[in-house]
Every structure is written in structure tokens, then in C-alpha cells.
Specification:
By secondary structure, the chain is α/β, with parallel strands linked by helices. The protein contains ten helices and twelve strands. It has two domains: 8-105 and 249-283, Leucine Dehydrogenase, chain A, domain 1 (Rossmann fold), CATH 3.40.50; 108-246, NAD(P)-binding Rossmann-like Domain (Rossmann fold). It has helices at 22-32, 49-59, 83-88, 107-117, 134-145, 158-172, 212-217, 232-239, 248-263, 269-283, and strands at residues 8-14, 37-43, 63-66, 80-81, 93-97, 100-104, 126-130, 150-155, 175-180, 192-195, 220-223, 243-245. The model has no long low-confidence stretch (mean pLDDT 95). The chain binds 2'-monophosphoadenosine-5'-diphosphate. The site of 2'-monophosphoadenosine-5'-diphosphate (ATR) has 16 residues, from helix 5.
């Protein structure tokens, strides 16, 4: 890699930032397309977020991704925010257009594309979404805006599930119930079971946000987690012969939309996926 005075700088702002795969994705994509760009990570505490944004402008950093816990807070420091990002209340991609910072959310499109690639229709189906945090909101917006028939949001904190479900019903006029995560046991009809919680994530790989009984009733299971590659939830799906996917496809798709916003073009997903898989087995 040749870094010179023309090299464009991109990065990820979050905290903690330890195991992010974004540098692996973007640097490989830049390299494979011969772009003089570099992507790095910035571990930024909440109280330093405003200064960090000022730093982006002052240093002429061309763009950045935003992750936990700054996706919501960043909005107030940006100059322009897209309609989708405002609707979700979260930004995961920022472009620096000559000192004007524009915020977008590519998670929604990333998830919709993943389901399309897997041949999973959203229209007319019944989804159960586990979790009611930031990631869940993007998933719920994706499902609701693509014509899901109905959904149930199940969360440890029922209050949070209730708030998100009310938001979905109000914004999209989609029937959206809510319940405690334990009450998922009672749901019989599950076309799609989607985990957006952190339950089962490394190092707690034995934990599952839903029992095997629940999983066995689902027609399709998607886990946003990709570390481990196959969570306990997905192992239940595999054992019961149910179609499933981890969150790597969404990670790649949302990254590709960010990449497009920054460079004007997409990267080759298959090429980057192969590189990522290799990187994961070596690093995670
Ligand atoms: P993100 O932006 O990744 O969604 P978040 O907003 O902190 O992060 O949300 C994390 C989600 O995982 C929440 O739904 C959380 O449930 P609570 O709202 O009740 O906190 C869920 N979660 C995290 N740890 C959990 C656990 N041990 N059991 C059940 N749910 C858990």
C-alpha cells in the first residue's frame, strides 16, 4: 500500500471498537479497485464525540462509519441527515462533502439485500424480532417498509419492545405486537425469526436468545451476529433442518452501500466475502 499526500482517509467511530471487521472489508475493497484510500478505526468516548466530528472536518477525513454507542448521538453534530436515517433515528455512514457532513443509514438496505440474496420474501410474512435496541429498529424499519404482514418484537425489557412496536405501528401502519423475550415460547406461527440481541455473541457462545422448540417452529432464522460464525441459535436451526443465515451478509451489504456513498461505486461482494472469511478465521 502506498500512502501519499493524495491518500483519502476513512474510518469507523465507536467505542469499544476492538473486533470490528470494517477495516478488513474497506481496505481490501480499496486495494482491489486500486483506490488511493485508507480505512482505520477511531475509538471515541461519548464525551469526545463532538470534538471527534470537528476533527473530521479540520483534518479533511473524507467519510466515516458510526457504530455503538454513537449512532443516535452523532445526528446532532451533522449538517445534513437523510430521510431514512432520521426515520430510524440512527446514522451509520457519514460523507464529508467539502466540509459539509452528510449522514445516512445503510443498515436497512444492507438487511433487505441480504434477505433478497437468500431468496427470502418479506411481503406478506410474519416475523418475530428478538431485541428492541438500535439494531432491531433498523431491522423493523426494513421489514415494515418492505411490506411484512405482521411482526412481534420480543425483548428482555418489555418497555423497550412496547416503544418500538408503537413506533412501527405509527410510522408504517403495520400490525406489530410486543412481548417479553420469554413469551416467544408461546408464538406458533413464525415465518422469520430474527435475532438482533447480543445473546450468543462471543465469548458467550453457548447462550441462545430462543429455545430449540421456538426455532423448530420457524421457517427461516437470521442472526445478526457473525462472531461466532454459527451461534447456538443457528445451531438449533441447522439441527432442525431450517434455513438460516448469520449476519455476515448484512455486514457486507451495509459496508457496500457505505462504500458506494464514498466512492461512487460498489465493491465486488464475493471477492471481499472470501477475504473476510479468511480474516475471520485468522483473527476472531
Ligand atoms: P444494538 O444497537 O446492537 O441493538 P442495544 O441498543 O444495546 O444494541 O441493544 C441490545 C439488545 O440486546 C437489546 O434488545 C437488549 O435487551 P434489553 O433492551 O432488555 O437490554 C438485548 N440483550 C442484551 N443482553 C441480553 C441478555 N443477556 N438477555 C436478553 N437480551 C439481551
Amino acid at each position: 500500500m502506498k500512502i501519499d499526500s493524495k491518500t483519502k482517509l476513512y474510518g469507523l467511530i465507536g467505542h469499544p471498537i476492538g473486533h470490528s471487521l470494517s477495516p478488513l472489508i474497506h481496505n481490501y475493497a480499496f486495494k482491489s479497485l486500486g483506490l488511493n484510500c485508507v480505512y482505520t478505526v477511531f475509538d471515541v468516548l461519548t464525551e469526545k464525540l463532538e470534538d471527534a466530528v470537528k476533527g473530521v472536518k479540520a483534518l479533511g477525513i473524507k467519510g466515516f462509519n458510526v457504530t455503538v454507542p454513537h449512532k443516535e448521538n452523532i445526528i446532532k453534530y451533522l449538517d445534513v441527515v437523510s430521510e431514512e436515517a432520521l426515520k430510524i433515528g440512527a446514522v451509520n455512514t457519514v460523507i464529508n462533502e467539502e466540509g459539509v457532513l452528510e449522514g445516512y443509514n445503510t443498515d436497512v438496505y444492507g438487511f433487505i439485500d441480504s434477505l433478497k440474496e437468500l431468496g427470502e420474501e418479506i411481503k406478506g410474512r410474519k416475523a418475530v424480532v428478538l431485541g428492541a435496541g438500535g439494531a432491531s429498529k433498523a431491522i423493523c424499519v426494513a421489514l415494515a417498509s418492505e411490506g411484512i404482514d405482521s411482526m412481534v418484537i420480543a425483548n428482555r425489557s418489555v418497555e423497550r419492545a412496547k416503544n418500538l412496536s408503537e413506533y412501527v405501528e405509527k410510522e408504517f401502519e403495520v400490525h406489530c405486537d410486543y412481548c417479553s423475550i420469554n413469551e416467544v415460547e408461546k408464538i406458533q406461527e413464525i415465518d422469520m425469526l430474527i435475532n438482533t440481541t447480543s445473546v450468543g455473541m462471543h465469548p458467550n457462545v453457548e447462550d441462545s436468545p430462543a429455545s430449540e422448540g421456538v426455532v423448530s417452529r420457524a421457517k427461516f432464522v437470521y442472526d445478526l451476529i457473525y462472531n461466532p460464525f454459527e451461534t447456538a441459535l443457528l445451531k438449533h436451526a441447522k439441527k432442525n433442518g431450517i434455513k438460516y443465515s448469520n449476519g455476515l451478509s448484512m455486514l457486507l451489504n451495509q459496508a457496500n452501500y457505505s462504500f458506494k456513498l464514498w466512492t461512487g461505486g460498489f465493491f465486488d461482494k464475493n471477492l471481499v466475502y472470501m477475504h473476510l472469511k479468511e480474516g475471520i478465521t485468522q483473527n476472531l
